[in-house]
Amino acid sequence: MAQESIVKIPKRAGLYSAIIPGAGQVYTKKYWKVPIIYAGLITSAYYFKENHDLYALYKTTYLDRIGGNTSDNLNYTNADLVTLTEHYRRNREVSALLFTLTYILNIVDASVSAHLFDYDVTEDISFHFQPIYMAKENANGLSLSIKL
Fold first, then answer.
1. Which letter does DSSP use for residue 1 in this model?
2. Which residues lie across from 6 on neighbouring strands?
3. Left, alpha or beta for 25 (phi > 0: left; psi -120 to 50: alpha)?
4. How far apart are CA 129 and CA 133, in angstroms?
5. Beta bridge partners of 127
6. Core vs surface per residue 127-139: b (16+ CB within 10 A) or e
Protein backbone atom coordinates (compact mmCIF):
# COMPACT_ATOMS: atom_id res chain seq x y z
CA MET A 1 0.00 0.00 0.00
CA ALA A 2 1.51 3.34 -1.07
CA GLN A 3 1.81 6.08 1.48
CA GLU A 4 -0.50 8.97 0.73
CA SER A 5 1.26 12.32 0.33
CA ILE A 6 -0.18 15.06 2.49
CA VAL A 7 -0.42 18.40 0.71
CA LYS A 8 -0.63 21.67 2.62
CA ILE A 9 -2.04 24.68 0.78
CA PRO A 10 0.24 27.74 1.16
CA LYS A 11 -2.58 30.28 0.72
CA ARG A 12 -4.58 28.58 3.45
CA ALA A 13 -1.58 28.55 5.81
CA GLY A 14 -0.97 32.25 5.16
CA LEU A 15 -4.63 33.08 5.68
CA TYR A 16 -4.75 31.15 8.94
CA SER A 17 -1.70 33.04 10.21
CA ALA A 18 -3.15 36.36 9.08
CA ILE A 19 -6.35 35.72 11.05
CA ILE A 20 -4.73 34.18 14.14
CA PRO A 21 -0.93 34.51 14.43
CA GLY A 22 0.60 31.05 14.72
CA ALA A 23 -2.39 29.20 13.26
CA GLY A 24 -0.56 28.65 9.97
CA GLN A 25 2.35 27.10 11.86
CA VAL A 26 -0.07 24.75 13.62
CA TYR A 27 -1.59 23.92 10.21
CA THR A 28 1.87 23.01 8.86
CA LYS A 29 2.73 21.14 12.08
CA LYS A 30 5.56 23.50 13.09
CA TYR A 31 4.26 23.83 16.64
CA TRP A 32 7.60 24.95 18.09
CA LYS A 33 7.39 28.24 16.17
CA VAL A 34 4.16 29.42 17.83
CA PRO A 35 5.76 30.51 21.16
CA ILE A 36 8.45 32.40 19.24
CA ILE A 37 5.82 34.29 17.25
CA TYR A 38 3.84 35.21 20.35
CA ALA A 39 7.00 36.21 22.23
CA GLY A 40 7.85 38.64 19.42
CA LEU A 41 4.34 40.05 19.20
CA ILE A 42 3.83 40.41 22.96
CA THR A 43 7.28 41.91 23.55
CA SER A 44 6.92 44.50 20.80
CA ALA A 45 3.36 45.34 21.95
CA TYR A 46 4.60 45.77 25.53
CA TYR A 47 7.38 48.15 24.46
CA PHE A 48 4.98 50.02 22.19
CA LYS A 49 2.66 50.71 25.13
CA GLU A 50 5.52 51.55 27.48
CA ASN A 51 7.06 54.01 25.02
CA HIS A 52 3.68 55.51 24.17
CA ASP A 53 2.87 56.15 27.84
CA LEU A 54 6.21 57.86 28.46
CA TYR A 55 5.90 59.84 25.22
CA ALA A 56 2.44 61.07 26.25
CA LEU A 57 3.66 61.96 29.77
CA TYR A 58 6.60 64.05 28.60
CA LYS A 59 4.66 65.67 25.77
CA THR A 60 1.76 66.62 28.06
CA THR A 61 4.16 67.93 30.71
CA TYR A 62 6.00 70.04 28.14
CA LEU A 63 2.76 71.44 26.71
CA ASP A 64 1.48 72.21 30.23
CA ARG A 65 4.71 74.09 31.02
CA ILE A 66 4.41 76.07 27.80
CA GLY A 67 0.83 76.91 28.82
CA GLY A 68 1.97 78.18 32.22
CA ASN A 69 1.20 75.15 34.42
CA THR A 70 4.43 74.28 36.26
CA SER A 71 2.90 72.04 38.93
CA ASP A 72 4.53 68.81 37.66
CA ASN A 73 7.01 66.89 39.81
CA LEU A 74 9.52 66.14 37.06
CA ASN A 75 13.09 67.38 37.46
CA TYR A 76 13.63 68.04 33.77
CA THR A 77 14.13 71.26 31.88
CA ASN A 78 11.97 72.10 28.88
CA ALA A 79 14.83 71.12 26.56
CA ASP A 80 15.09 67.75 28.37
CA LEU A 81 11.35 67.21 27.94
CA VAL A 82 11.59 67.88 24.19
CA THR A 83 14.49 65.41 23.92
CA LEU A 84 12.65 62.77 25.95
CA THR A 85 9.47 63.27 23.91
CA GLU A 86 11.36 62.73 20.65
CA HIS A 87 13.22 59.73 22.09
CA TYR A 88 10.09 57.90 23.22
CA ARG A 89 8.20 58.80 20.03
CA ARG A 90 11.00 57.21 17.99
CA ASN A 91 11.07 54.13 20.24
CA ARG A 92 7.28 53.82 19.92
CA GLU A 93 7.61 53.87 16.12
CA VAL A 94 10.36 51.24 16.20
CA SER A 95 8.22 49.03 18.43
CA ALA A 96 5.27 49.38 16.04
CA LEU A 97 7.55 48.49 13.12
CA LEU A 98 8.86 45.39 14.94
CA PHE A 99 5.31 44.31 15.77
CA THR A 100 4.31 44.68 12.10
CA LEU A 101 7.40 42.84 10.86
CA THR A 102 6.81 39.97 13.29
CA TYR A 103 3.21 39.70 12.13
CA ILE A 104 4.20 39.70 8.44
CA LEU A 105 7.05 37.23 9.05
CA ASN A 106 4.53 34.93 10.77
CA ILE A 107 2.39 34.90 7.58
CA VAL A 108 5.37 34.42 5.23
CA ASP A 109 6.79 31.64 7.39
CA ALA A 110 3.49 29.75 7.39
CA SER A 111 3.21 30.03 3.62
CA VAL A 112 6.80 28.88 3.03
CA SER A 113 6.37 25.99 5.48
CA ALA A 114 3.29 24.87 3.56
CA HIS A 115 5.21 25.04 0.27
CA LEU A 116 7.97 22.87 1.74
CA PHE A 117 5.73 20.56 3.78
CA ASP A 118 6.00 17.56 1.46
CA TYR A 119 9.55 18.29 0.28
CA ASP A 120 11.37 14.95 0.21
CA VAL A 121 14.78 14.95 1.84
CA THR A 122 16.30 11.62 0.93
CA GLU A 123 19.08 10.00 2.94
CA ASP A 124 20.87 8.80 -0.21
CA ILE A 125 22.96 11.77 -1.26
CA SER A 126 26.12 10.53 -2.92
CA PHE A 127 28.99 11.47 -5.24
CA HIS A 128 30.45 9.03 -7.76
CA PHE A 129 33.78 9.58 -9.51
CA GLN A 130 34.53 7.44 -12.54
CA PRO A 131 37.34 7.61 -15.08
CA ILE A 132 36.13 7.89 -18.67
CA TYR A 133 37.64 7.81 -22.14
CA MET A 134 36.22 10.14 -24.76
CA ALA A 135 36.91 8.46 -28.08
CA LYS A 136 35.79 11.38 -30.22
CA GLU A 137 38.36 13.72 -28.66
CA ASN A 138 40.85 10.91 -27.92
CA ALA A 139 41.12 12.13 -24.32
CA ASN A 140 40.84 10.75 -20.83
CA GLY A 141 38.68 12.41 -18.22
CA LEU A 142 36.90 12.09 -14.96
CA SER A 143 33.14 11.81 -14.63
CA LEU A 144 31.40 13.15 -11.54
CA SER A 145 27.80 12.20 -10.85
CA ILE A 146 25.75 13.48 -7.93
CA LYS A 147 22.68 11.62 -6.74
CA LEU A 148 20.30 13.80 -4.77
1. -
2. none
3. alpha
4. 13
5. 146
6. eeeeeeeeeeeee
CA gap 65, 67 in Å, rounded: 5
Alpha-carbon gap, residue 63 to 69, rounded angstroms: 9
Shortest CA distance to 18 belongs to which of 104, 116, 115, 109? 104
Cβ count near 22 (within 10 Å): 21
Instruction: Write out pLDDT tens, residues 54-108.
Output: 999 999 999 999 998 888 888 999 999 999 999 999 999 999 999 999 999 999 9
Cα–Cα distance measured from residue 6 to residue 3, given in angstroms and rounded to the nearest whole number? 9
pTM over 0.85: no
d(CA 20, CA 38) in angstroms, rounded, equals 11
Measured from the Cβ of residue 101, the count of other Cβ atoms closer than 10 Å reads 12
Task: Tell me the C-alpha to C-alpha distance, in Å, between residue 99 and each of 3, 41, 47, 120.
Answer: 41, 6, 10, 34
CA distance 14 to 18: 6
